[in-house]
Every structure is written in C-alpha cells, then in structure tokens.
Design brief:
The chain has 206 residues and is mainly α. It contains 10 helices and no strands. Helix 1 crosses helix 4, helix 1 packs across helix 6 and helix 4 runs parallel beside helix 7. The termini are far apart.
C-alpha cells in the first residue's frame, strides 16, 4: 500500500496532499500524547482544523493516518539524503556529510520517529510490511554510500551492519532523547558518532 492507494473521495491531488499533511501533524501530536489506540478520529479531525466528515473524505480509517505518518517520515528522509548526496563532490568524507544531514533530520523529526516506533505495530500486516520495506530502502541507501565513498572495498556483511548502525544511531537521538539530550547537544552527539564511525571504518578526514 502507498499513500496514493489510500482511498479519497476528493480528486484534487494538491488538496488531498494538503489535508493529509494537516492530519499527519495533528496525529503525531495526539499519538505522542495519548497513543494510537486511545486517540479518536474525531480528535484528529478537530486538531487538524476540520470536521470528522471532512476527514473521512481523505482517508478510510484511523490506521490510514498512522500509515501516512510512517510513510511521510521515510519520504522526507529519502528526499533529504538524495539532496545532500547530489550536492557533494565525492571524497573520503562525503559519507560524514550525508550522515550529519541524516542525524540533523532525525533531530527535526524527533516526535515523528518516537510515534513511529511506538505505534507501527498497530498497522495491519500489509501496511506494516510496506513501512518495513521503506526502512530497508533507507538502510540500502547507506550501504550504497559505503560502497561508493569508502577508499577501499567493504564486504557486504560489514556494509549491512554499518548501514544499520548509522540508521539506528540517527533515530536513537529521538527515542533515547530523555537521556542523551541531558548529556549532549546535537552537535556534540553528531561529532562523537562521526568520530567513532570514521575510526571503525579507518577513514581520515582530509
């Protein structure tokens, strides 16, 4: 399932996107406060600024909104990473620039990340599989960068592990923020993570 496969009685794609972004923002706030199951569609509609009837013109179920939240997170990550990659001249430290941009995005999206990890289990199997596949694609982006930017050949097993480590450590800033943000600023957190990443990969900063 993709966001285009979530049925809407409204045919104006721009309006559908606008209304769904309002729902996503409202849902994140409510899911964070009350959880997915305790939040009602009426509350989401009110927080979004329109009626419950209007809400059901753009989605079918409350689960559709949770799916849109998860899908939105991965689409934003993909766009940010692709934009950074396009701007970078390939060097030994290109990977660090991309990882920094990813960590900064995870800082911007802390609430979304927390909601996703708390509530993705509430999706039905088809939707959950789609979201997990999007996560797989994000990890594969990091793997591709390891193959492209490292000054030596890395094994597939090592690339898989390092890519997953990068992915999780970025998100950890959000779901472990209750502890990490008492001890680190975002800048120091990124710097230390990059220090250990470069050390593990034996990459020197030019």
């Amino acid at each position: 399932m993709t966001d285009k496969q979530i049925l809407s009685s409204v045919k104006d794609r721009q309006l559908v996107e606008k209304r769904r972004q309002q729902m996503i923002k409202a849902a994140i706030s409510l899911f964070k406060e009350k959880g997915f199951h305790r939040t009602t569609t009426r509350e989401i509609a009110k927080q979004s600024g329109f009626s419950i009837g209007t809400l059901y013109e753009y989605i079918r179920t409350k689960e559709d909104i949770l799916f849109l939240v998860c899908d939105s997170i991965y689409e934003q990550v993909k766009r940010r990473l692709e934009a950074v990659i396009e701007l970078q001249v390939p060097t030994n430290d290109t990977l660090s620039h991309v990882v920094r941009a990813y960590f900064e995005l995870m800082d911007d999206m802390q609430d979304e990340v927390v909601v996703m990890y708390q509530e993705v289990k509430s999706l039905q199997k088809e939707s959950r599989d789609y979201v997990l596949q999007k996560e797989r694609e994000m990890v594969d982006m990091f793997k591709a960068m390891l193959y492209k930017y490292l000054p030596y050949k890395i094994s597939e097993t090592d690339a898989e592990l390092v890519a997953n480590n990068i992915f999780v450590k970025g998100q950890m800033w959000g779901f472990r923020r209750w502890m990490l943000q008492k001890q680190f600023t975002l800048e120091t957190y990124i710097d230390r993570q990059l220090h250990y990443l470069r050390k593990a990969l034996a990459v020197k900063v030019p």
